Amino acid sequence: MEETPSPPLGGNKPHLEKLTLGITRILESSPGVTEVTIIEKAPAERHMISSWEQKNNCMMPEDMKNFYLMTNGFHMTWSVKLDEHVIPLGNMAINSISKLTELNQSSMYSLPNAPTLADLEDDTYEASEDQPEKPHFDSRSVIFELDPCNGNGKVCLVYKTGKPAQDTEIWFLDRALYWHFLTDTFTAYYRLLITHLGLPQWQYAFTGYGISPQAKQWFSLYKPITYNTDLLTGETDSFMNKLDPSKVFKTKNKTVIPKKKGPVQPAGGQKGPSAPTASKASSSSANPIRK
Fold it and tell me: At a CB cut-off of 8 Å and minimum separation 6, what does 38 contact?
């Protein structure tokens, strides 16, 4: 059996703490966070990696091999509790070797002459000094899916023709089929995945258009360790609410400390609205006397 749900991570399994870089302690101490769960996976065997390499005619990077020899994939989730409702929020996943499959390049439809991913590719993008050349859906690149991102896109392991066998890159393919560079190595991507806490749409922080307003709300509440919080301010201040964790996650049965009352005033002084009326009446009655 490949996967077994792990009990709450309270330090019972040190190897899981090492695998998650201790991020579980940060999550469990955050306001409203509940059900921090990691699905424990058995280590992959070396022949599984060799079979994958032979099948796909690719050499798996060494850091990625070491990861799979520790755990055959990764899946960690956490939720938040709002009032009495538990809402799934964080999701961190890396496909197992069996699901590390090449991105489908066949026809999207069963009809003859249907368009392929290569037909839909946008060739207007050019490499710049700060970003390498983007992947291609044709023979120039070999692309494998690392993480389906809950339907928000795909994180992919990319091999490029003409480069060394183990020289790979990690890219994010959004739902509009645009590519966005993430990291040069699998280890660097894994750190990004963990330190962004698996927040919804976190990969879009590395795109030109950024994360959605709804995701910004969660980012402002659970700030990722490596995220530039300056991006949460500016133009979005006009429509983004400021969340206070102490108010969002406060319990209904919390005792309210009554405020201390000031010194008791005379009965006449407590008639707030009627006091000006009385003064007006006295002033109006005093006018004829002046005359």
Answer: 6, 9, 16, 19, 20, 24, 74, 75, 76, 77
